[in-house]
Design a protein that fits this description.
The structure is a homodimer. Chain A is built from 13 helices and 13 strands. Chain A is α/β, with parallel strands linked by helices and about 350 residues long. In chain A, a hairpin with a 5-residue loop joins strand 12 and strand 13.
Amino acid sequence: MNTIQVKLGKRSHSILIKQGLLKKIPALLNAKNKGQKWLIISHYKLLELFGFTLMENLKKSGFKCEYITLPVGETAKSFIEYRRIVSQMVEMGCDRQTNILCLGGGDVGDVGGYAAATYKRGINYYQIPTTLLAMVDSALGGKTGINLSEGKNLIGHVYQPRGIFIDPDLLNSLPPEELNAGLSEILKYGIIRDQDFFHTLLEELDTIDSFNYTSAIIHCCRIKAKIISRDETELDLRRILNFGHTVAHALEAYLGYGRIRHGEAVAYGMLSAGWISKKLGLLKDSEFTLMSQAIHKLPLPKLPPMDTALLLPFIKMDKKNKHGNLNYILLKGLGNAVISKDVTEELILKSLKFLA
Amino acid sequence: MNTIQVKLGKRSHSILIKQGLLKKIPALLNAKNKGQKWLIISHYKLLELFGFTLMENLKKSGFKCEYITLPVGETAKSFIEYRRIVSQMVEMGCDRQTNILCLGGGDVGDVGGYAAATYKRGINYYQIPTTLLAMVDSALGGKTGINLSEGKNLIGHVYQPRGIFIDPDLLNSLPPEELNAGLSEILKYGIIRDQDFFHTLLEELDTIDSFNYTSAIIHCCRIKAKIISRDETELDLRRILNFGHTVAHALEAYLGYGRIRHGEAVAYGMLSAGWISKKLGLLKDSEFTLMSQAIHKLPLPKLPPMDTALLLPFIKMDKKNKHGNLNYILLKGLGNAVISKDVTEELILKSLKFLA
């Protein structure tokens, strides 16, 4: 078992990573079971794949366990679904001692975590990520939230889970394109924070079929745990995790949710931010070429023809905005992300043309 | 100026108390103004009384200031009003640097604070309480939240303000029954935590017309600030602030919101809890008599005839429930509240009959 600590005083918790971990969860939570309610929040496909077995195992170990079903995909994060979750929790008689287990990808983790953050002013929850993206990114760090019709993640809270259980075996049930979408976030960690890891990945991506997910997940979780421990609420360092995300969010919003996967959008976003870093003289040509090579080893969909000017409003809407100046994450060399205020709209537009 | 510190590490902040403080707010916030948006959340009556003047003064001092209006009363804390606030904030272009000023009583403070807690995962806010109840209780401690149709305060978060500005002069605009409703919360601090303060109040309440609100507010804020600094999230000590509140919430829910004021319900709730403490041998007869005398000096409405058995479901719903056992706050002597698990339904029913 790999155990990684997230050090946050009273909000400290562990990330446990091991193939086959799902079966061990009842034993691992046993000491925390004082007869309270345990609530699995997940979507119906995942419940059939893993959730109902987990629930049976918990019940056999003496846990009072119930579940709430969400729709698949981004709809799970709507205001209406959130409202339904908390209503159902009241109906079930959930109290402040109830523990939530979020079993799913980023969507489930975000809305389930937000329900935990806000139900009766906050109850305990655990993350059990089922996608590669969630295992290396969204399940870690306590960002929870929901969408409004006006935009994604407009409502939320940073609220830490009591633990994160990562079972890389769950990835076997994912379609290959879902796995690939997660690879770009893995690559991101190398690009922004760890040059050696980047070079390892550059090599390993030549043979994606034999990619060692478990070891990559452990590596990424270590990096992210350190960053969160230093800057929980994204005042400075944590921002670098948003590398490539301003353009990624704009691409997702412009193309319409569901037309491009988050990980794919991040790949293009990283290319754009890398290109800008190069133009500003922060990233060497050779480094940008290496980064580009690595990203192009990911099986990315071709972007459809876009009117790049129409992307700009989405970029301005991005919540990393500060007093109207964009805080842009750039690279000052490979493996070293920095926060810059020098990125003009013109430069972003040019970088988007470079992508298209 | 009286300055009281709430010590909570990074979430530390000050409570400033002074007659005429409202006018000084622009000067006091000046160092925090970096050109971001400042948003006054209040209801229309208070905006006319104080809010628009505050906004003008802020604007004159170079603040970018806007406002959002809420309905008067508990409706302000509905899910729908909350949804409207955050939508309006998106429309106004509020970003993570936006600061909210909650100008109002508990309702405004709760929903405004909750908007701050959840908008883009949390922004800064300040409390400017306008009722006695808010000045001594609800504006302090970071409890924020909204109601669901299923019950009060079911959704919320503990999220500290960056500062609390208390101007006792604002009380002059309140109708006397509002002021009186706040007196029971003041009395509560003496009863649960400070016997000397209780005896001072017992005397002062004989001449309510000349009651020294400023000095009582300072005293209560000192007690509450100490309690919050020791137990922010109500794991133990902070619970004693709920003295009388289980029955109070049940009375409010049973009689229907608006039929009894929160402070009035708390007065009856304290009588009930005191009576139970006496029955369990924790509170001397003479102490209960003193406490009763003090409470009856408050101008309380007579309770209508009630079917006390019908109150019980509301008491069980109370969120201070733990695995089905009620955590009841009792008195082990005047000025010394404790948490008890020994309170049976039968005893509560009997105490309710004593009230009626």
